[in-house]
Amino acid sequence: MSRSDETSGDGFSEAPPHFHGHRERLRERFREGGANALPDYELLELVLFRAIPRRDVKGLAKTLIARFGSFAQVCAAPPARLMEMPGVKDAVVAELKLIEAAAHRFAKGEITQKPVLGSWAKVLDYCRTTMAFADREQFRIIFLDTKNAVIADEVQQTGTVDHTPVYPREVIRRALELSATAIILVHNHPSGDPEPSRADIAMTLNIIEVAKPLGIRVHDHVIVGRSGHASLKALGYM
């Protein structure tokens, strides 16, 4: 290190910014105790360190949590809404979306190449991870083979904050294209409440009616929201 790197123009040593020590202490707590040792805003700070290397990010982390509600909701927030927040630039959005994508990929890996009915809790975790915090309704179909292993997992429709158009014959047509013998229907309620509506129940029964003569079984229709999930099968609607 040269002399100029150690001193300021007046010859006195320059102290590193105060947040440098905070960053190292936070990293050390994470290394020793994992994510459970940190509240949401501090876990978010660790992500922001990479995108904003030369500024204190504690205030921004707290602001983002206050605005969106939790670490998961910050990562799942639409880029346009994130960019509305002062201090959030493209680099921050990229880091948050990378975390979200990694979470989705990890959760999906837990349900592929194995019978999903034997790992139902992981299916529910996957559905919640990928859809619970979306700001618009999505209708997802998990296509299964004769051993109930996942053939494909597709978002068939994306709608508004409270409605997604679903066409039963298109659902079954896609199942036939993939040679699926069973399907799991999934959609989210951006309102947060997973309670099924009358329209949800009617649509599910319609799909079952179209699927049955073709030998395609509908195992369940799961609705996810921030407050939990609802299974139409468990509720006795199918």
Q: How would you describe the overall organization of this protein?
A:
With 238 residues, this protein is an alpha+beta fold. The protein has two domains: 18-105; 113-231, Cytidine Deaminase, domain 2, CATH 3.40.140.10. Helix content is 46%, strand content 15%. It has helices spanning 3-6, 18-33, 40-51, 58-68, 71-76, 79-83, 90-109, 120-131, 168-177, 198-211; strands spanning 138-144, 150-158, 182-188, 217-225, 228-231. It has a five-stranded mixed sheet with strand order 2-1-3-4-5, with helices on both faces. The termini are far apart. Mean pLDDT is 87; it is low at 1-13.
TL;DR of this structure?
With 238 residues, the chain is α+β, with helices and mostly antiparallel strands.
